[in-house]
Structures are given as structure tokens and as C-alpha cells.
Amino acid sequence: MEIIEQIRIIEALLFASDRPLSSIALAEGLPEGADVDHLLRDVQQQYHGRGVNLVEVAGKWMFQTAPDLAFLLRKEVAQERRLSRAAVETLAVISYHQPVTRTEVEEVRGVSLSKGILDTLMAADWVRPMGRRRTPGRPVTYGTTDHFLVHFGLDSIRDLPGLAELKAAGFLENVNTSRLNLLNDEKPTEEQPELPTYQPDIRE
Amino acid sequence: MEIIEQIRIIEALLFASDRPLSSIALAEGLPEGADVDHLLRDVQQQYHGRGVNLVEVAGKWMFQTAPDLAFLLRKEVAQERRLSRAAVETLAVISYHQPVTRTEVEEVRGVSLSKGILDTLMAADWVRPMGRRRTPGRPVTYGTTDHFLVHFGLDSIRDLPGLAELKAAGFLENVNTSRLNLLNDEKPTEEQPELPTYQPDIRE
Amino acid sequence: MTDEDTGQQSAFEDLSVKSPEDDRGLIVDIEGFEGPLDVLLMLARSQKVDLKQISILELVEQFLEFVADVKVQKLEKAADYLVMAAWLAYLKSRLLLPEENIEDEFSAEEMAARLTYRLQRLNAIREAAATLMARNQLGRDVFARGRPEPVIVTRTASYDVSFYELLRAYADHKTRSAIADIRIHKREVYTLDQALERLQELIGTIPDWTDLFRFMPESVMGEEMTRSVKASLFTASLEMTRKGEVEIIQKQPFGPVFIRKRDRKD
Lengths: 204, 204, 266
Hints:
The complex is a heterotrimer, with two copies of chain A and one copy of chain C. By secondary structure, chain A is of the alpha+beta class.
């Protein structure tokens, strides 16, 4: 099969889908031995600068409208519900610190987390429980979902904006819940974060 | 606004829309005086021969998978499925006792026969209705198909091993043969399967 | 004063205008803040210096003033502020007084550095959150195919059953039904009562030693029934011997058992 034909197939498969497809899924529609990644780069190149672009999100591929045309399209959809500042900030703490426990989120934000916030973020399918921290009490840790990556156009959590700066400034070090609670001082005990179950930990 | 920009807008609008758009609707996103029809012809030309085409349907426009690639969107998945234990047993009872009515299968198995099982066996082309028993209610009798014989490598239904052979082959290790003899419905003569699939049911 | 509808940045600007520094005596509401740390961050930023260079002492003063002016509406919320105020006052005293060597406790500088760190971290995560939310979001700024063409999957089931499985199923079925259908046939038995009745009735008519089994009814047919009659007759003879009604004798093992009526007069 000629390359041009293989490109047509990839184009058709991706265009027909409203969610990202993995290169493995795409390969199923192609002859054996087809260089899917190379073909994807070709298609991406061909659509570069057009009204529709091929983007890589959450390790998968999808066509979406060009970002600079947002002004034109935005009116077409119902106004999305605005997240509260608390929810946005919680989402940020979870995405940058993941896997992170509820207590740690509260520690970073300096305020207790009302129940509704995590619910909202999980209902939006942006946040999910990831496992349990191997510390006393085995608290549940939270992290972001693939849907979060797709929604914000990220290929992986390594691509979070400003991640490198936050890390360099030492703000993503293990959250120590005793840093401010000096009234009953405790030596900071470093918690070993649990290995994330599905997504790579953005921390070292 | 340059033509290329207008084409991008048309592309994005058509891509993101959940229904075909008229040229009037498209014009709303374009600068006044834009030659929408001409632009649409341009876009159509650009997508000609690609995996996705721009088509006009009932005076409106939409992107659609190229007709020759429509096969990509119809997947035939041949699933190797496991037959439930109840289904295998029902198949066995039918093959040994055919022609046999549903009620008889239930009597032999001692449990009622869920509708799905006969359907499954018929969908797999192993079992078929054979006729009607000449008894009150004229119930349908079932038997096995040629496909059944082919699948199990049998020349005829007579080749099914009888109880004695099953026992000799170690299938009935835990069963005392004398106990088998105690069964009212297991007179040795009845262990011989009935005559082949094609014969009409002649039992009164 | 809610911060939900304004950006976080503008929320801070609004609040700092009302900070005690600018409007002394103005009654401040804590409803708009997300806890003492939020207030501290706002106050730190009002120092209009890099967060790394904030004056902790000045921050303490600002916070204590803020708390003094706060119009407290909810006690549980105020408690957080009072705890923070107490801690800051403690920190201030530690910072001002010469450091003593207290074991297992952080130095005042360390405590101050940690507070600064937390404020910087919160500030940084807020900026990151703002950047994140400013990204092109799917369904808000960029869009997926609005009219996806779903892949229609037709599943043709093919079942894989081996001949072995078929036979196994039939054999298992037979095994199960054999076990399930065991029926103990009602045995025809000659009861002990019947045997006693017969012996008592007939023994008087027999003059001398007689083979026990000659008392068997003529009509007995079949091996099972014969065995049952023999067993019951034998048991009956033992019972009658016990009662002193008859005598029995067996001359050799497995030999015939003889019976005769016992003469009471003996």
C-alpha cells in the first residue's frame, strides 16, 4: 500500500473520532509494518497552519480546531460552568504535586478542603484516586486523569506549564505537614511518595 | 482577511459542527462580502482524494470519511467466545437425544432452559429446529446441524460415543455403572443416539 | 465580597486596598479569604517586594492588625486566625529576643524561612493554576470533531468448543444426574412381626425338630424376598427362644437351623 493511501486511512480514522486515538489503535487499520509514527508526523505536518490541526494529547492523537480560531468558535458552545477559585487551585495542587493526599493539598493551600471540591474535580473526570501513600493511615493519593490531559491539551503531566520552574524553586518537594505547625514542633519526616500507579510521577 | 484565513475558518467551523452547515451559516463566521460558495469549492478541492472529503448534502456542507474508506468504520470483530457450561451441556443433551423438544431438554437437565441458550446454539449454527412432535401442542423438536458434525469432526450423529464408551474412555470415572442403570430414563437402548439430522421426526 | 467571579489577581488587588495599612479602622471581613495563609499572602504582596524579601516582622504586625480589625462572623473560622496570630506573636518574640538553645526546636529564622517558603509556594501554585486555566481548553477554545463518525462494530461470535468439551459436558451431566437420581427402591420385606406370627401359628402343629426355613411361605418369590423371609424367620426364632417358647439348635457352622416347640412342663 502506498504511503499516500496510508495517510488517507490515518486521516479518515482520526477525523471520524471525537476522542484521541493511540498509534496502536491506528495501526490496526494499516498494513502490517506501517510506520505509524512517521505517518502521523506527516499528517501533522500537512495540517499545520490549517483550520484543523493534529495534536498529540495524553500520548494519543486527535484532530482539533486551531487554537487561534477559538474567538470564532467559542460562542458556539454553551458557556461552561466556571470553576471556583478553590477548585482551580486544588486542581493545580493535585496536578503539580501528584500523587498527593488530601492533607497535603490542604497544607499547600493553608485551608481545609471542603468535600464538594474533590467531588467536582472527580465528576469532571479530571482527578482520580491513584492509590495509597505508604505512611501511617495509608491515606488515598490523588492525581490527574487522561481526560485532564486531553482537556488541557497536554501530552503528559511533564508538559504542565511552569512545571520546571516550580520544581527548580523547590516548591514541588514533598509536602511537609509540619512546616508551619510550629506550636507543636515536630522534626520534618520525609514521606516517601508512593510510586504512581499509572502516570509517571513528575517529581524525581 | 486573506483567502487562506477564510478557508481555515470554514474548515474549523465545519469540523466542529455537529450538523451540516449551510453557506449562509458559514458566512456568519466570515468577513462581509466573502464568497462563501467559492471558498467551499476551494476547500472541497483541497480535500479531494484525501481521507476525508467535503460533501454537499441537501444544500448543506459537511466533512465525511471518503467513501472508499468507509470500510474502516465498519469493523467486523470475530470474537472467540466461550460457551457457557449450561450451553455446552444443552448442546450435548440435544445431540444425544435429538430430535428433542425444549421441555424434554429441561426434563433431562432438571433445570429450565433460558431462552438465550437455544438462541446462542442456533446462532452458532449447531442446533436447528427439526420439525414438530406429533403430540398435543405439537412442540418443536431440535437437533444438530451439518455444521455441528463438521465442527466436531463427526461423519454422522451415530459417531457420538455411547455411555459405555464414555465410561471406557474415563469420562464417567466417578459414576457407578449400576447407578446409571438405576435411572429410569437411561435404558441402554436410549443411549444410542437417534438417526441423523435430516430425518423428519416420526415419533408419535 | 466574593472572589469567585473575579480573577485571583484582581481579588488580591481589591483586598489589599482594604488592608489595615491603607484604611485603618475599616472593618474587614474574612469571608472573602481562604484562611489565614491566604490573608498572609495578600499582606506579604502588599509589601510590594519580592516574596523572598518580605519582612516577617512587618508581616506579623500587619496580620495582628488585620485580625484586630476583623469583623468576626463565624467563630470556627476566626479560631484559625487567632491560632495564626498567636503563632506569629510567638515567632515575633523569638525573632526579637536573643536565641536560646532549645532542643528539638527550630530556630526563629528557620521558622520565618518556612513561613516565607509556604507563602512563596502558595503564590507559585496560584500562578501555575492561572496559567493552566488560561490554556486552550477542549470544548472551550479548541474543538473536537463535532459530528464524529462512529466505528460500527459488528461482532460475529464464533464459539470455540472442542469435541472433548462436548463429551465432558454430557458425561458431567450424566454423572450429576446419576448422583441426583439415586432412588432407593422400596424393598419388599417380610417383617419380623409377620415372621413371629407365622412361627407362633405353625409351631404347634410341628411335632419335632424342624428346619426353620421349612416355615417359609410357599408364595415367596425372588432372591431378595427369600433373604428377607429367612432373616426375619431367624430373628423371630431367636425372639421366641428368648421368651422360652421354642428351642433352636444348629449342629454345625452354616448348617440348617432346627426349631421345635418347647414343652412348658419340662
